[in-house]
Amino acid sequence: MQIWRRRFLLLYMMRVPLAFLALLGVGLPCAFKTSMFHGVADLALRQVMTAAFLASLMVSVAITSSFLVLLYGQERADGWIVQPAPQDRVSFWGVAFLYVYGGICYIVFLYSIRCFMTHAGRVTAAEMHRGFLVYAFCGWLLGLLVVMVFFLGALRFAKPANDDALEVFAFPAFLIIRKIFGGHWIRSFKDGTRSEAAPGSYAAHDGFFSRLIARLGPGYGSEPTPGHPPVLHSGHRFVMIVMFIFLLFYWITGQWTLHELRNVYEWGSGGASNSVLEYLLLFLIFWNGLLAGLTFLVDRFRFPVLVVLGVFLFLVAQLGRSDHVFSTVELRNSAALPTPQQAFQSAPEPLIVVAAAGGGIQSAAWASRVLCGLRADSSVIGFQKSVLAISGVSGGSVGAMFYVRCLEAPPDDDTAAKWAQDSSLEAVAWGFTHPDLRRMFIPGPATSWSRADRGWALERSLLKSARFQHTERRLSDEHSNPVWPVLLLNSTDALTGDPFVFTNSQFPGCDSTEVHQFHCVRTLQQSYPGRDVFLETAARMSAAFVYVSPEARPDIPPDRAHLGDGGYFDNSGVFILSEWLKVAVGGAAPRSKRILILQLDAFPNSKPTDTETLKKWYYQLSSPINTMLNVRSEGQIVRDKAIGEDLQKLLNGAGFDTTWMLVRYTPPAANEMTDGVGCPLDPPLSWHLTPKEQRCIDTEWDKVRKPLAVEVEKFLNPRPKPAPATCVQDPIVPPSVVERRCAAKSVAPASPPAPPAKK
Length: 759
Fold this sequence. Notes:
Layout: H1 2-13, H2 15-31, H3 45-78, H4 86-89, H5 92-120, H6 125-156, H7 173-181, H8 184-187, H9 208-214, H10 234-262, H11 276-298, H12 305-317, E1 325-326, E2 329-330, H13 340-346, E3 351-356, H14 360-376, H15 383-386, E4 387-393, H16 395-406, H17 415-419, H18 425-433, H19 435-441, H20 454-466, E5 486-493, E6 499-503, E7 522-523, H21 524-527, E8 531-532, H22 535-542, E9 553-554, E10 563-565, H23 574-584, E11 594-601, H24 619-653, E12 657-664, H25 691-716, E13 728-732, E14 737-742
Parallel strand pairs: 1-9, 3-4, 3-11, 4-5, 6-7, 11-12
Antiparallel strand pairs: 2-8, 5-6, 5-10, 12-14, 13-14
Helix pairs in contact: 1-3, 2-3, 2-5, 2-11, 3-5, 3-6, 3-11, 5-6, 11-18, 13-23, 14-16, 14-25, 16-22, 18-19, 18-20, 20-22, 23-24
């Protein structure tokens, strides 16, 4: 019973490193298939070596943490007790289990990367066949070499009387070597100490810092006796040295990316590499070491480690400011922003308004591809000057930002639409694993510290990808942006749930006379008079997707509410566009303009099944949550459809001819792709597109471009033809584009006032 108790005790104390190995071998391969972690494993061949190297270090850290538990775990749990020599505390089968378990997780992890890379299209099949195993093997060898250097270096500087102690071993393979060949060759690595070494002794260290740590009690150092204070076990000393070197390397990698992000003009040579997986593995190594050490400390007192960590981080957070903010700048306009009526009356006839739906980088790429492509198409005459307003949400707002970049290029140049496909996930990963992690443990003052987060990194990455001729693009600067359309970049007030709009126009939202403005649409200028933001900041705040980019408040005292992704309230952009357009046409002369409502959607139309399988009793546990989520997404679709139809009826009733056109991205089928492989149907919700997905967007646009350009040209330059008596909805080939045309209704003349009744 005593043996089984010891085994279960040590296995329980090893739960953190074993869980992190499972995360490497099971969690990450499953995450690679999700929309949130999409693109993390989209690597070039040379990056496979780095991933294999860091994964091997993660396995080594987990095994080393487990090895230290096997050496000192029972002493930590039961106090200073008589124990066998260190080399006898760890069984051959225990080490074999750790190696087999860690090796399986390591291989599964690398195999999942290989599977993702095969379908991503960044590396050809021939290159994958020749190079993947070579790079993976080199990464593993490099990891093994680093661990051996650490071990031999620590052994070299060990005290002569203690260099035979097994707890100094950072890599448990040496235990197997010792079991087979003995330990004389290891002791000989330190000159002149063979005869002085005491087999099986503790490699204890008695420096001031080591003695301080040893006072934590059993499991950390030797038992104190009169005249002999406790000294630290060498295993802990070695692990602390390794973690210090790791944190130094961690800091250096973060500083390099920070330097790159501060330079907004260009990435380093070769462009931005996909370093997301590198940051993620470094992040996991950090938490593996921290949680394993914390578990070893608090298990003796039977405290849940996550509760202890949560309380500690909560108390630390009270010591400083760690909130997320976004930067605002002074509004330089001398005149008031144009009203919707002024913008509408000054626009040429006919005019186009755009609603660009949200959805991460795929929405940004599709929206900019359509808008920049129509502008660059020579057959669509007058597209740029006809675009009156763009209402963007999340990725659609980023697409609107890249369309604005297209306006700086020659009329036939749509290169900026390709730049919208550049990945920003690396910057987000850096922000999450460096400044955002640092602020958890070291809260900073209310200065620039709070602005260095993953949201700021996303801003800088978008700005670098856009390659603006001048990087300072204020949203409401009337003098620098004369060719911009009205931009309505949607966000959501996290406190009230109300829609919030970043715009370069006045907006018919809350009544300015109201003290407490709720249940209405608010703008930055209404909430913060005299303040403005840069274009990339507005796009980023509109795209503050859950966990990817943080909800943030403006850097204006007093503290205000946080803003989140615009898709929380309306993911299509139709609602805000409708509210703005209703006011814009008020007072306009009937039949003075024809209006095209261009709706851009970057996701295929989902069709749920009509039947469901019979459920078990536990279905009721998750059913309410699933129902609310389904209602949220489906409710927006139904509402936006009704709003669009009502808007057309309102405009028709006011005497305007309207055309509603939906341009939906539908992934091409296998027979439409050059490689014969169909495009993925599960779209990414993050900020990375694989080469395969980029080619899919280009292929779909090549298919849609000509028929769409023909229809837009017909709208801009109509041929004489009778107007339809009722609304006509025509599918255009291909079926991903749908058009609905509605003629203006006759506007009855105002009735004369009735004569007063005779008495």
